[in-house]
């Protein structure tokens, strides 16, 4: 795959993944699409901080995806300074996008280890409270239940309803998308290095342009 085709593939993929990552992280703040838990302060502060990190990473990845896609399609406003200059710009943006994608990956890993914050009963003789029952790192009275123990999904948390499958599915999706963003950003870094050295190679376009020049120069 040549540099131009790779840039188009990576750019479009980053565009889709960045938008989906922000949407998924937004849903994590609104369990069952109910905003009352967020307004009442029952969503963990680490989720809110993580959402900011995902948004920051999403914006950086989105900008990188746009620039990489336009460079791959040789849009005139970006290719006026030459393909090598455009690939240098893509290389710089990819470094920032890689940091953002790694931040999103770190956040998704932490929330999957910590589990959702919900209203639960920590013990037989204890009263209900808001906390992290799934082996959370920020609650001392954790029952140390694993998040992916599907048998406990509907019995541990009282509120919000169905928060555990909601959280597990969205958190897993965010982890996978963040991991894909990291891989794509690294691949574009390598692709940008080739682009700075060799420019955008597209044999078909070269062949087409040569044929057009011959047809123009040929006498009618």
Task: Record keyword descriptors for this entry.
single chain, 220 residues, mainly alpha, 3-stranded antiparallel β-sheet, 3 strands, 66% helix, 4% strand, elongated, disordered C terminus, L6_membrane
What report would you give on this structure?
The protein has 220 residues and is mainly alpha-helical. The protein has one domain. Strands 2-1-3 form a three-stranded antiparallel sheet, with no helix packed on it. A hairpin with an 8-residue loop joins strand 1 and strand 2. The longest helix is centred in the last third of the chain and has 36 residues. The chain is elongated and about 70 Å long.
Layout of helices and strands:
Elements: H1 3-29, H2 36-39, H3 45-72, H4 76-79, H5 83-114, E1 118-120, E2 129-131, E3 157-159, H6 163-198, H7 203-217
Antiparallel strand pairs: 1-2, 1-3
Helix pairs in contact: 1-3, 1-6, 3-5, 5-6
Q: Can you count the beta strands?
A: 3
For the largest beta sheet, what order do the strands appear in spatially?
Answer: 2-1-3
Percent helix, as a range, is 55-70%
Beta-strand percentage range: under 5%
Elements, N to C (H/E): HHHHHEEEHH
Q: Kindly name the structural category.
A: mainly alpha
Measured distance between first and last alpha carbons: 38 Å
Low-confidence stretches: 137-142, 204-218
Average pLDDT level: 76
Radius of gyration, rounded?
Answer: 24 Å
């Amino acid at each position: 795959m040549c540099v131009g085709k790779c840039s188009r593939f990576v750019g479009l993929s980053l565009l889709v993944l960045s938008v989906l990552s922000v949407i998924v992280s937004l849903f994590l703040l609104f369990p069952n699409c109910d905003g009352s838990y967020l307004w009442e302060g029952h969503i963990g502060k680490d989720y809110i901080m993580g959402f900011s990190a995902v948004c920051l990473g999403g914006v950086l990845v989105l900008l990188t995806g746009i620039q990489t896609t336009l460079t791959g399609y040789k849009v005139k406003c970006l290719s006026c300074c030459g393909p090598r200059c455009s690939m240098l710009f893509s290389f710089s943006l990819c470094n920032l996008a890689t940091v953002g994608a790694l931040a999103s990956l770190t956040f998704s890993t932490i929330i999957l280890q910590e589990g959702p914050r919900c209203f639960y009963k920590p013990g037989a003789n204890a009263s209900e409270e808001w906390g992290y029952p799934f082996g959370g790192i920020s609650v001392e009275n954790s029952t140390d239940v694993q998040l992916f123990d599907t048998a406990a999904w509907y019995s541990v948390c009282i509120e919000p309803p169905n928060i555990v499958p909601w959280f597990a599915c969205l958190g897993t999706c965010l982890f996978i998308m963040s991991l894909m963003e990291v891989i794509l950003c690294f691949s574009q870094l390598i692709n940008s290095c080739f682009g700075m050295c060799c420019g955008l190679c597209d044999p078909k376009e070269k062949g087409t342009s040569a044929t057009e020049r011959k047809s123009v120069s040929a006498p009618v």
